[in-house]
Amino acid sequence: MKIKTIFVHPVKGLTAQVCDRVQLVENFGIFGDRALALMFTDMGEAQPLTPWLSKKHFAVQNDWGHLASLNCAYDTTSQTLEITKNGELLVAANVGTETGRDRISAFFSEYLQTLSPSPSARHPQYSPVRLVGSTTGETRYQDRDQGQISIISQATLDDIAEKVGVNYIDPRRFRGNFIVDNIPAWSEFNWVGNRLKLGSALVEVIAPIGRCMNIDVNPDTGDRDIPLLSQLSAKFGHAQTGVIAKVITGAVVTTGETVTINNH
Question: The organism sits in which domain of life (predicted)?
Fold first, then answer.
């Protein structure tokens, strides 16, 4: 088994970014993954290092699907966040500065006014947003417990595509961290309760991941173009894909490294 692709999400709820290598940290997760977030200003005072809060506090793709039509790219060296759409640069700013954060916050506050929330949105009313979090990765606005990552088999995605009658399922729909090759479809569920070596990092697989309507969203256009959530239940009898794992021993993990079961 090998790591095919590594994804991080620099800003919670926005698009994924492919990385060649990431730093896994014990009881933390992936350094830089969901380190920034767009917090609604009517949900409390938005400080640069706002602690973990529930998803209702933030503008996220699951509630505002067409956020996915924006491509988010973050450069950790320059601390520059770039937002493009269809190849056109919409805004770029150094989010290590207050001026840069203000520019990003103003852009998304205006952009959200052009969107309609999903019927199940936890914060459906319009409110300005403020970019929060650390530019160097010390914060994590993840959906799950501290220290967890997500892993999905490429074969599982291929099997879903075949069963629902499409040529390809973009892994970004599932917002996972590691896509793993050379493992049979759905067999990652057999890892639950076991420990894995991702390269030289050690993780413990906790549970399958229950899915939400976010997987229906096309990661390029923001359109809900494939009813994947209902199709999972109809074709497979459940709405789970991939597994969550807790980082036990941190390390730098790179694309192409091996994945092995390690219970010793």
Answer: Bacteria
- The whole-angstrom separation of Cα 240 and Cα 111 is 32
Encoded tokens for 118: 């999903």
Per-position DSSP letters for 169-199, written without gaps between them: --GGGGT-SEEEESS-TTGGGGGTT-EEEET
H or E element that contains 106 = helix 98-112
- Tens digit of pLDDT for each residue in 29-47? 999 999 999 999 988 776 6
pLDDT tens-digit series, residues 57-99: 899 988 888 999 999 999 999 999 999 999 999 999 999 999 9
- C-alpha distances (whole Å) from 226 to each of 31, 39, 79, 104 are 32, 28, 35, 30
Cα(45)–Cα(51) distance, integer angstroms: 11
Q: CA dist 111 to 8, 67, 70, 91, 96, Å?
A: 23, 9, 10, 11, 22
Terminal Cα-to-Cα distance of the chain (whole angstroms):
19
CB 131, CB 58: distance < 8 Å: no
**CA 16, CA 3: separation in Å to the nearest integer?**
17
Q: pTM of the prediction?
A: 0.92
Q: Quick: pLDDT tens for 15-33.
A: 999 999 999 999 889 999 9
Q: Are 185 and 169 in contact (CB under 8 A)?
A: no
| H-run or E-run covering 98 | helix 98-112
Interatomic CA distance for residues 26 and 146, integer angstroms: 10
Residue count of the chain, please give it: 264
Q: What is the mean pLDDT of residues 150-173?
A: 96
Cα radius of gyration rounded to whole Å, the chain: 18
